[in-house]
Amino acid sequence: MRPGSEAELAELVRVANAPLALRGGGTRGIGAVGPAEVLETGGLAGITLYEPGALTLVVRAGTPLAEVESALAAEGQRLPFEPPDLRGLLGRGGESTIGGVVAANASGPRRVQAGACRDSLIGVRFVDGTGNVIRNGGRVMKNVTGIDLVKLMAGSHGTLGVITEVAFKLLPAPEMQATLALAGLDDGQAVAAMAAALGSPYDVTGAAHLPGRGTFLRLEGFETSVRYRARELARVLGRFGAVAEVDGAVWAELRDVAPFHGMPGDVWRLSVVPSDAPGLVARAGAEAALYDWGGGLVWLRMAPGVDLRARLGVFQGHATRVRGAGPGPAFPPEPAAVAALSAGLRAKFDPKGLFNPGVMVGA
Q1: Buried b (16+ CB within 10 A) or exposed e, 136-168
Q2: What is the pLDDT of residue 149?
Q3: pLDDT tens digits for 80-130?
């Protein structure tokens, strides 16, 4: 099914009596959907409102991400949260849609400075499991409803409703970018260096570590400001070793987890306390690791079938299997109180249990 309007979509959901697998571009979904009929959102496409002077954008959910980014680039603007392209990691084709980005709360290296996708999202429209169209938020950052549905829908992976339209606050594209690099640091030293950079007043917009390749820090903005901040940040980092300025292509690699493309094994995503990251990586026994968000996000490439959660035991954070099959669910188990809250929300917004059955089992 591929409805061409929100009204058509709402009617399809209203009369549905069997599970529906929601699909935007099919490029980033994780978790196994149970038996279900595919419902595509690609027919709900197009930018409905773009006000460059107000740094706001309203766009239908099925609009390709590339189309959105092209329109913004033409006005010297961008989405703040640097959405990743996971097609290479997951071995998929298709075109990512902006609704899929929101459903996954997909966020890249700039999250350390600009926040996640949900932090730039200021409005959402969606169809709930009874066929009602619900609108929350708008073109200004004001929300007076009892539940912040804008934040709730970001990262819900299509389990609460079918997103039909989203609104974002935007940022100007920077005049200049500079990337500083430190070589030869072990994981612990790298996390300490990234913490020093992020704790400095120099507005770092990326902090990552690729073991064996280097530790990278990014600065963006007006040229005069970037040059000054790069010089001062290099002084802060001097105690960790020689600091060099390098090409910024590494950020696209990190955003898309490119070092793991075409490589065998399962891929896991850890959200952790940065200072805990090196110890967890050592405990995991991974075949390869990438550190982003100053160490708060760790990508691990593991041997197929490893139960990483069992291997790590209890830790502050969670582990999601992005690529690969069992054992255990893709999404991390939730504490009992959180699981009860999640079940209550699903019962409220999807009382017939239509949307993406089984996707967030364990969450």
Answers
A1: bbebeeebeeeeebbbbbbbbbbbbbbbbbbbb
A2: 87
A3: 999 999 999 999 999 999 999 999 999 999 999 999 999 999 999 999 999
Residue 144: predicted pLDDT: 41
pTM over 0.90: yes
At 361 the pLDDT is 62
For residue 23, the cross-strand partners are 40
Helix (H) or strand (E) holding 270: strand 266-272
**204-246 pLDDT, tens digit each:** 999 999 999 999 999 999 999 999 999 999 999 999 999 999 9
Rounded to an integer, what distance in angstroms lies between the CA atom of residue 161 and that of residue 41?
12
Domains of the chain: 6-172+339-349 (3.30.465.10), 176-255 (3.30.70), 258-323 (3.30.70)
**Considering only CA atoms, which of 64, 42, 41, 60 is closest in space to residue 50?**
60
For residues 278-288, give the mean pLDDT: 97
Collect contacts of 44-47 with beta carbons under 8 A, ≥24 apart: 44/3, 44/4, 44/5, 44/6, 44/9, 44/99, 44/164, 44/165, 45/97, 47/71
pLDDT at 35: 84
Contact between 284 and 319 (Cβ < 8 Å): no
Tokens at 96, concatenated: 């990512």
